[in-house]
Design goal:
9 helices; alpha/beta; four-stranded mixed sheet; single chain; about 240 residues
Length: about 240
């Protein structure tokens, strides 16, 4: 049996829970196993599978750990450094999700290269010691964020992000699905509260939303505010 372990600081247990939930269905199909435990000041995820599946399982784990760095660690980085006025608290969280989404694919690819092939991964250690170029890039982004930021600027920034995007997501009764109808839960890697659907949609980097069912009022307001003519109304998912 092949074994891959992933650890992170204890207060980042949610990161490992995200990895676990993301790979559980696939592991069940190949008779693999995943366990999440707390050991001292750290949380540890242990994945077991047959040797013949080790490479593909390793790639899946690296992919999800790369998302942890490109979303959760980036959120923490920005939240500590971006200081501005002019936005409501919920709009500030939307801005955080937007800043993360802007380079999400690129940041994820960078982290994935560092993670691929590793059998023992300490996410926090990898971030602290092997992600310096990524952190320098994020520091540059922070330096460009104005100290005063208002709703109209937020709307313009999101409109800029949506330019030339063709990907479609489906929002059905408050849940967000990708083009293959896989449930998306990237927003669980963010801090903050409110508009979970809006932030999930932003992290999907979609250009269109197919919408079915009712949304919470706040999510509905901002979805229409930012996506307007990019919304397709549907009676339900097939």
């Amino acid at each position: 049996m092949a074994q891959i372990t992933v650890t992170d600081r204890d207060f980042n247990k949610n990161n490992l829970l995200y990895v676990q939930n993301s790979i559980s269905e696939f592991l069940s199909q190949i008779s693999g196993r995943v366990d999440l435990v707390q050991t001292g000041s750290r949380s540890m995820l242990t994945v077991l599978c047959e040797d013949k599946f080790a490479d593909i399982v390793g790639c899946e784990i690296a992919d999800k750990c790369a998302e942890v760095i490109a979303i959760n660690y980036k959120y923490d980085f920005f939240k500590k450094r971006v200081k501005l006025c002019g936005l409501k608290p919920v709009e500030f969280e939307i801005l955080m999700a937007s800043l993360i989404a802007a380079d999400l694919d690129e940041d994820k690819r960078y982290a994935y290269v560092k993670l691929k092939g590793e059998k023992e991964v300490a996410i926090d250690g990898l971030y602290n010691f092997r992600m310096q170029p990524l952190k320098r890039k994020w520091e540059d982004i922070v330096s460009y964020v104005p100290q005063s930021f208002v709703n109209s600027q937020l709307k313009d920034f999101i409109s800029y992000l949506l330019e030339n995007k063709r990907r479609r997501v489906y929002v059905d009764c408050g849940k967000v699905y990708d083009s293959h109808y896989r449930l998306l839960k990237r927003s669980s890697l963010l801090g903050g509260e409110g508009v979970e659907i809006v932030r999930e949609v932003l992290l999907s980097n979609c250009g269109e939303i197919e919408l079915s069912g009712e949304l919470p009022k706040e999510d509905e307001y901002y979805i229409k505010e930012f996506y307007s003519d990019k919304i397709i109304f549907s009676s339900g998912l097939s």
